Amino acid sequence: MRLAALAFLRATATTSRLSLAPTARFSVVVARAMSELVGGGDEPTTTAEERAEAATLRTTDGAAAEVAPTVAGCVFAGPGRQKYVLVQAGARYFVRGDPRASYHMDAARPLVEELRAMEVAHEVLGGGRIQFEPDAKTIHIYGHSMGFPWQGEYRHDLSAMVCQEAYPDFTVTTSNEGY
């Protein structure tokens, strides 16, 4: 299917922007093929080694049942467009974003290390991008992660719930499109 998508894009693409179906699996295939076609843009390319490193962060077994209540649910390292991850530990969900992160594992690492130190089991459910604009009081959640691909449907809805709880005065929107 990926080769078919790439062939389709080569035959029809005139720009580096495509409108992709919101939840179709084909969207991810087309997005990846489009990235290959146009050279990946400004984004770093996730190599097999980097995906393997991300896999070591994805899950941890732990003896502790719950996360300390002092661990914030939603943390952004700064404003602007950033890579983000959604992490589940016990019954809680956590969102971490970092505009300086080259890879999603860079956004995940501080929380994962904190959870491991507390011996709390966790799973990185997936990731994408967040446009965090504190002055405009907006948060837009979208896209996907190559290092932490969603298993099944994108769960930006859970990420939005965590963000809305942390920023109740902000407008939080989601989209499954974009990279």
From TrEMBL:
Pfam families: Ocnus. Gene3D superfamilies: Janus/Ocnus. JanA and janB regulate somatic sex differentiation. GO terms for biological process: cell differentiation; sex differentiation. InterPro entries: Janus, Janus_sf. This is Uncharacterized protein. GO terms for cellular component: cytosol. SUPFAM superfamilies: PHP14-like. The active site is at 104 (proton acceptor). Keywords: Differentiation, Sexual differentiation. PANTHER family: BCDNA.GH02250-RELATED (PTHR12258:SF5), JANUS-A/JANUS-B (PTHR12258). It comes from the Eukaryota. One of its GO terms (molecular function) is protein histidine phosphatase activity. Belongs to the janus family.
